Amino acid sequence: MATVVRMPEVLAGTTEAAITTWLVALGQEIVVGTALAEIETDKAVVEYASEVEGTVLHVFADEGAPVAVGDPIVAVGAPGEAVEGVPDGDAPVVSAPAAFSPAAAAPAPAALSAAAGTASAVPQSCPTPGGPGDPFGRPFSSPLVRRLAKERGIDLATITGTGPNGRIVRRDIESAVPEGRDVPTHTAASGAEPAAAASPVAAPVPVPAAPVSGAAVPDGVEEVPLTSMRRAIARRLTESKSSVPHFYLVADARVDELFALRKQVNAVADVKVSVNDFVLKAVAGALRAVPEANATWGETVLHRHLTVDVAVAVAIEGGLVTPVVRDVDRLAVSEIARTVQDLAERARAGRLKQHELEGGSFSVSNLGMYGSQEFSAILNPPQAGILAVGAARQVPVVDDGELAVGTVMTVTLSADHRVIDGALAAQWLAAFVERIENPMLLLV
């Protein structure tokens, strides 16, 4: 019996996702690690790699259609092998051959027939409606985009695609104005609290539906339709704030020496290092110094982490994500800078991988570049800590009894009291401040 690959829980807490693009073709031989498909959740598009090897025998999921986590998406096995839930002799399921079978990977019709155990096959030259090679001149778009456009009453013929070869992508739909409605473009959020993968400890909190088209609204009010990402952010942050016992500790750190060291590093480094890169390194050092804080909540147990993996809040169009930097304590500051820049660029392009959004025991959210002096961030369950970083500013300070001007940065630690007690949190925060105020400790 062939192996049935099911829709994975790409991000913790995800209940459904959609396959935006199949990266394999019927009859194609694959191995462990072969990219099967690009899967879109309410947070990002991630590439899903196969955990089995064999021949692609059957495709259960159409591009663009929502699929519940755990439902079958593709069957892999030996050519001619029976597929669970598929009667013998049934033709393979391929709703969009041109998009599903890239020219470079498309097998011959005979291979398709052999793989499916049937004499019939879907012609590989049949163009996808709205896709490359569409003889009717329809706009290039995926089934998911066409579904979103239909739901919002948007005519694709009025949209200029910003994707490859003029393809209409999701961001084009989300920024478009539905026909007959005066709705402003939804702009990127710069909120502080990360809303990435959460493992809720309570039943999901319902989020109000988007305003119904044509419903009366008060004078002077404009409707902004909720995106799926904004709904997810609302749901997950509400779950975190209502079900996790937060408490907060605030500290001021002198960063004059940090700024001086950063200037020296950037004078010789091949990659520009930001203050946030030093913050990540100091966070990792504090987690090594206070390993009891490097833990997450597991309902019946605490999970003590042996590696230091830190999530970084990145603002993207319509929300934010928190990709994870692995082994931060083992990386040089320049390596951290290079990694964060790469993750941020791919996050904004929606090209993060599945594993890059998973794990981590701690998060960092920095709004200092926007001038925010101080703020408190909401925890990203099951993580037990998040550090909110404010802007550095010059203030009066006392040095050895003398009044002077110093550069100070305010940081706020949000902690899960189920995992981290007050004294432990204070010990961790002191370890962080020690490292950020003495940045040479971060280089040795």
Features:
444 residues; six-stranded mixed beta sheet; four-stranded antiparallel beta sheet; 9 helices
Write up this protein.
- It is a single chain.
- By secondary structure, the protein is an alpha+beta fold.
- The protein contains 9 helices and 18 strands.
- Strand 10 and strand 11 form a beta hairpin.
- Helix 7 crosses helix 8 and helix 7 crosses helix 9.
- The longest helix is centred in the middle third of the chain and has 16 residues.
- The termini are far apart.
- About 19% of the residues have low confidence.
* Order of strands, widest sheet: 9-18-17-16-12-15
DSSP summary, beta strand count: 18
Number of helices: 9
Structural class: alpha+beta
Question: Order of SSEs, N→C?
Answer: EEEEEEEEHHHHHEHHEEEEEEHEEEH
Question: Low-confidence spans: pLDDT under 50, at least 5 residues?
Answer: 89-138, 179-205, 207-213
> How confident is the prediction overall: mean pLDDT?
79
- Work out the helicity level: 10-25%
Radius of gyration: 25 Å
Alpha-carbon distance between the two ends? 56 Å
Shape: globular
Major sheet characteristics: 6 strands, mixed
Report the portion of residues in β strands.
15-25%
In short:
The chain has helices spanning 97-100, 109-116, 143-152, 170-174, 228-243, 256-268, 275-289, 333-348, 422-437; strands at 3-6, 16-22, 29-30, 35-40, 45-49, 54-59, 66-68, 72-77, 246-254, 295-297, 302-304, 310-312, 314-316, 319-321, 324-325, 362-366, 385-399, 402-416.
Task: Describe the SSE topology.
Elements: E1 3-6, E2 16-22, E3 29-30, E4 35-40, E5 45-49, E6 54-59, E7 66-68, E8 72-77, H1 97-100, H2 109-116, H3 143-152, H4 170-174, H5 228-243, E9 246-254, H6 256-268, H7 275-289, E10 295-297, E11 302-304, E12 310-312, E13 314-316, E14 319-321, E15 324-325, H8 333-348, E16 362-366, E17 385-399, E18 402-416, H9 422-437
Parallel strand pairs: 12-16, 16-17
Antiparallel strand pairs: 1-8, 2-4, 2-7, 3-6, 4-5, 6-8, 9-18, 10-11, 12-15, 13-14, 17-18
